[in-house]
What does this fold into?
Amino acid sequence: MKKLLALLMAVAVTFQLVTPVFADTEGTEETTAPTEAVVETEAPTEAPAEETTVPTEETSAPTETTEETEEATEATEETVEDIALFADDGDVIASGECGKNGDNLTWVLTVDGTLTISGSGEMEDYSSERLDGKYRTTAPWGAYSEQITAVVLEHDVTSIGDYAFSRCRLTSVMIPDGVISIGSDAFNWCSRLTSVTIPDGVTDISRGAFFYCSSLTSVTIPDSVTSIGGYAFCGCGSLASVTIPESVTSIGGDAFGGCGNLTSVTIPESVTSIGDSAFTYCSKLENVYYGGDDQRWKKIEIGVNNNDLTNATIHYAFSHIHDMVKTEAVEPTYWSVGNNAYYTCFCGKVFKDANGETETTVEDETLAMLPSVAHGTCGDKGDNLGWVLTEDGTLTISGEGEMENYSAKELDGKYCTTASWGVYREQITLVVLEPGVTGIGEYAFRGCSSLTSVTISEGATSIGLEAFCDCGSLTSVTIPDGVTSIGDRAFYGCSNLTSVTIPESVTSIGSSAFLGCRSLTSVKIPEGVASIDDQVFRDCSSLASVTVPESITSIGNYAFLGCNSLTSVMIPDGVTSIGDSAFQDCSSLTSVTIPGSVTSIGEYAFNYCSSLTSVTISEGVASIPYRAFYGCSSLTSMMIPEGVTSIGDGAFWDCSSLTSVTIPESVTSIGDGAFDGCSSLTSVTIPEGVTSIGNDAFRGCSSLTSMTIPESVTSIGDRAFSGCSSLTSVTIPEGVTSISWNAFSGCSSLTSVTIPEGVTSIGNQAFRDCSSLTSVTIPKGVISIADTAFYGCSSLTSVTIPEGVTSIGEFTFAFCGNLTRVTIPESVTSIGEYAFNYCSSLTSVTISEGVASIPYRAFYGCSSLTSMMIPEGVTSIGDGAFWDCSSLTSVTIPEGVTSIGGSAFRGCSSLTGMTIPDGVTSIGYGTFQDCSNLVSVKIPESLASIGHCAFRGCSSLTSVTIPDSVTSIGDAAFEACSGLTGVTIPDGVTSIGEKDFSCCISLTSVAIPESVTSIGDSAFDNCSKLKHVYYGGPDLQWAKIEIGVNNDALVNAIIHYGSSHIHNTEHIHEKAVSCTEAGNLEYWLCSICGKYFTDETFTKSTDEAGVTLPALGHAMTRKKAVKPTHKTAGNIEYYICSRCGKLFKDALGEEETTLEEVTLPVIPYVSKIVLTRDGEPVPETMEVGGRTGDTLTFAAVVQPEGAETKVKWSSGTPAVAQVDQDGVVTLLTSGTTVIKAAATDGSRVTAQVTLNVIARDYAPRLGDSTLTLNSASSAGVSVDLVESYGNQILSVSVDDERFDVEYADSLLTLTSREAVARGTYRMTLEAVCDDGRTYSYPITVRVIQTLPRLTVRQSQRFNLFYRDSQATLTITGGEVESAELTGNSDFVLENEDGEWVIRYADPENAPAKPGTRATLSVSFAGYNIPVTRALTISTVNTAPKLKRNPTSSTLNTALNSDWSVETVLSGADGESLYAYTDTPGVDVALSGNVLTLTLTEAKNVSANVYVQDDNWTKPVKLAHRVTVTNRLPTLRAAAGTLKLNSWFPSETASTGMILSQGNVSLTDVELTPAAREGTAARAESDKLNVYYDADSGEIVAEIADSGIKNGTYSFACTGILESGTEISGGTVRVTVSNTLPRARLSAAMVRLNRQLAGEESIAVKVTLTGGDGYAIEGFEELPDCLDYADGILTATIPNADFTGGSYVLNAIVSRNGETATLPAGVILRVQVYDRAPSFRLTAKGKLDVLNPVSEIIYTPRLANAQGTVTDIRLKGADAELFAAEVVDGVVHLTMAKGCTYSTRTTYKVIPVLTFCGQEVTGSTLSIRVTQSTVKLAKLSNRTVYQSQTAPLVQVLSITSPATAEIGEITLNSRSTAALRNAVEAAGGIEVSGGVVRFPAKAFASLKPGRYTVILDVTPENAAADAKPIQARFTLTVQK
It folds into this structure.
């Protein structure tokens, strides 16, 4: 009982401890050993007892202690010593003898873990020993068992000894064919051994031979083995199947025990016994393939504990286990087929299951490719990546590696990617980049406009240049972790991209990466990014927030320009620079904090951030640059930090809400326009230290009330405070020496200003329009007051000009309307033109003696000036000097005056007398014109000429003495001197000009000297009282005088010839004797000589008595007064003398009268008034034209005679023309008025004439009289000069010789002849016109010197390493003519093909550390002066990255006699490369790119190699390690197995041979069959011819005997080197089979329509599977209905009787010129049916009337027919409106040419298609025609003149669609009516294409003003029902 209990306990222990050993299939020695101690050290000698399975010392179970299974982690002391012994012996660790006879076998262990046993004969048997707690073999290499990974047994070794390799860490073993026995436990516990091939010849696998080889997955047991010993494969837990050959008769106990993964075993019929536990613990064993039947199986002696074997499924009569190779299921892709999972046995059969129960074929398990639009490859290495586009618009890219880089091309007017999918860019809506794709190529998806989303899988590392550029529909993208870089412009133009996720892995974002992503709302920049490059987020207009990480150190130029939704941004500490325009136009940005790390802010950095309310700038910034905060209109305050030294030009320009600014003490300069337009700025304190305030610095600061300018300021720039309209006072510091141009102009609230004593000049317009300035003190230091300095200071009442001022400029005090007095000091020597123009309150002026002239219009319009004392020293009075000084009563002109200019005193209507001093030689044009109160004038004897109109209108002038010195009198000189009674013209005058004395209505006589030869037209016109002309010559001379027209009064006067003077006579008429008075005869009495004459020719003289008669006396009768009526006459009271008959008004006869005088006639009513002009009646309507101011005179003739003649004149529209009561009409402007004359007697009779007035001004129009000329530019300055009413400009000139003018095409261009200094120049422009007149224009030219802004960018850094290095400079600012570097001798700047390139000045002697600072001087086209700037050349010093292949070398002295090694350099090219070394024992040589190192002694060395090139400035150092060894190479076949097919016995198979060292070569390889002589295997091997082909370097196998059996045959290889040394080459295996491929049809059945017999055909594709290199040649005995060619079977109906059928087809295949008929046929069924063919059409596209090439594409879908559409015709009512054609089976329908369509009409056509030789009519198609929305380019507003002779041209263009063209253009009725009528009256508009011409005649009749012009535009080919598109603009008409 006790024994039984003990036995049961032992069994329990066995199951508890042993089971884990056999159950673990993946474990190692360390993890699967049982825990019970076993002391047995040798393999068991007998099988364990059946009753117990617990191993004991007696039964030697295969278990160990835990200590036994632990592997050593380090060698024992003995091992270390042994290694040390061999350390110097190459790579050999140890060696020795191991033969059964001693030295018959030797062994060598090398450092690579290979144990090689060579020699001949048997190996010594060994055992197992325990040392240091671990078991190992007692073989001599046992101490190194943990280092042994491979065992090589050479050919003549015949046995493997017991325990030979026990517990070695073998991974592979090569057992030669000569081995016939494998000893007990030979490989036990070799747990890393994965496979083993036991060669033919081994007869016995001894006990425990492969015990516990737990990683062994396969084993080949040859047919020579007859028995398998106990425990032979016990514990091989990875073994899945095993085939026991026919030669085996017994399987030992536990032979396969514990093979826990064993699923199947093949047992031959020869086995008669299976030992105990042979298959125990084989729990997965399911299938046993037994060679015999069930009866034979039952006869096998099967030992105990084999339940797993006996419970398995027994397959009888199987010769082998199906040795299955599983083909895993593969999903089909768009570019490759897939398959279901299936199993293939080496016998060639295919099964659905691993058990081989369900047979199938590869074809049946093959899955077709997925359907796609297109696919291809796109990898940077070719086919490493593939792409596919599916019909749903998904583009999928998969594979391994990076995408290919592409470029952009123009396609359909847009740029898109050159990738293969570019043509489908509009179809792509989704891009999926599958895992494995690591890089997105450049331009990969550019222009994919329909792309809405993209999926980028993990693993991608980069996104290339412009990868997603212009993907306008892309809405979001998530960039996965792992991507490190986003290329330049990667997402440029993705206008719908709303979000993007940038992972933390990204370290660089390229320039313009997200430019134009207008829908992007937020972005987070990861921490790894160091800089925000240029334009990264430019124009991201929806970007509301951005997270800038702490890692950012710089923000590039334009980085956030145009991000107008960005409200805030946090700039982290660490950022050192903010680039140009970085945040420009961020109009929603409200605040920004600039950290202390920032040292520079770029130009325009925050330009037009219109919502920015606050900015915090930390200390560290040195300057506020050019326009940094320009246009920040919401910025209210600014604290500029300490440290800022300058505020740049325009820094805060137009910050209109800025109320305060703190400028630190560190600031020294305030740039031009710094605070220009800061209209809310109320005060500002400029710190001490500022030395200059730039131009426009505070211009337009209209709220600035006070300004403190520190004493440090020495200059105030032009317009510095211009327009500061609230500034009330300003103190200018003492250091300022000049007040610049426009400095305080427009400071309308400025009441006082203190100008310091140091100021020497007051510049142009310095205080112009300071309308509140009441007084100003000009300091004594001022020497000049420039032009318009105080112009428009309308509140200025007085001004004191100090001594020292030498000049007062033009317009200096003009329009100072309240200025009452002014004193001009003695120091003043010149007064400018218009200096006191329109100083209307000026009453007195004191001019100093130093003034030499009173200039042009100096006091023009000084209407309050009463007197003028012109000082001595003045020599000339300029034109218009005192014009319209209407209160001037007296003026004293000094004797020094020699000339008085035209109009000098014109309009001085209060002036009564004038003394013109001696010395004046001429009186100019209109000098005293309209001096209506001038009574007398003294003209000096020095006067030589009197100018035109000199005294015209001096109506109070009664007499004038013209001295004899006068030789010429200008036209109209005394015209309208209505008080002048007589005049004597002196000798010397040769002509009397036109209108000289016209309208001198009081003139009675004139003396004309004999010198006069001509008298001009109208010279004495309207001189009705002129009676006597005293001519100095005879009558014959008088007759020769040329007397002009309208001189009737002169011609009809009495001519007194030869008179020395005019008889100033009184004509006494004859007087009869009266009752009360004496009478007299008629006579004439001269007041000069006192003589009496009785004739009017003064020839008969008498005395007083001779003409006197005595009186008679009166006799009076009284007549009473009678009143007249309209019917009766009346009279007044009167008296009549009866003696003389005279009538008197009084009874005394003192007042004589006449009957007519006393008779009061009947008073008639006015019955008619006739208007006349020049005596001729005028029509009812008259058209009159002329210049403004021209007159015409009407007369009113009253009927009947005697009626009241007085009429009242009036004008219906006085603005057009005025009429005085004398009927004189004055033309004012164009228009229509009615001139009316009305009777005044109550009769209400009127007469009228309608005047259509066209008032024309023929003077050319000058666009601007103030010009700015840049003297640095050669282009000059241009201004419009427009001809009026066709009055052609013939020539132009100016009166300043320093300038030239030219006129062409209505443009006046002024240039300087020489270098002209800066300043203001005034001159007169004269234009000579076709009308004979010269028109004059005063112009002011401001000469400045402005150079273009020079911007320089260096495109790449200059690499100092290369002598031929270069860097390109991009120079902007204008067209560059030349450029050079100065101040640097190391570099030069050269122009190469239009680019400016920096190079070394002397490349051969390039300096080690060249200077990088230089001065760049650039000459721009059109400029006379070069622009210079400092330039720092950006450099790097980067050597080429040289690579070596290999990077280190091994020198095998056994094979290399010259001790040299080679490595190939890459990374640098050039014939001039050379190398040298400083390492002893090594020589180097470089040939091409091959570097050779030669050792002078055989020891390891690390050599320093220096590579140099003639183009390098220094060498590149490399280190190359050379390891010296001494060993022979190994040889192996590249392919382990060569395959031959006995169907094609002439074929060969080959493989290359691989040597372990590349520096040796083979001369021959000997091949020997591995099978022993005399064996069946050897006999079959001899039927093969296997040999080495030295020419190709390959092993070639071919069938020598076609009767060879199928199988695998081994051949041993021995290589022979060039030196004759033989080396082992391993084994080459040749597999012979007789397999053929299988044919497969693309369709198993085809259907043919009998109605299409002879026309319809169906193609079936034939393919081969199951082999390579096969081709189908044809089929045996094809039926009539089938034909074969080029892989296609074509089925047709051969005749009318054909009914179809099924056909077995046997394919004939060929390979390498040999053919064979496949035994397995394919079946094709041909079915015949009878149905009418039909079709349906699928439409895509649309017809657009504006796109003549638009089309609808119909894809036919045929029913009951197989074929392609070849033709189409249309029928139906609308068929003629459309055209259709078939291209590649697809129908293209277009619009017919010349037809008109309606977009609201549905057109109907019926298609008739031709296919399969028949016409088939389809269903009616409904067609709609569309019209694209047309957009016109916006028209600019235009300006024309009434006098313009050229038509107005407007050019219209259609911006979209691109295919539309302009057809018809008409003037819309909603245009301004007046303009429309005028255009129509002038003939209408003229249209040519898109050019519209408006007639010039239309403008003359339009009033000045604005007119709306609307044009109706109809595109060419527009739809009939389409409305025209309207274009409008505003037309401004000017006079």
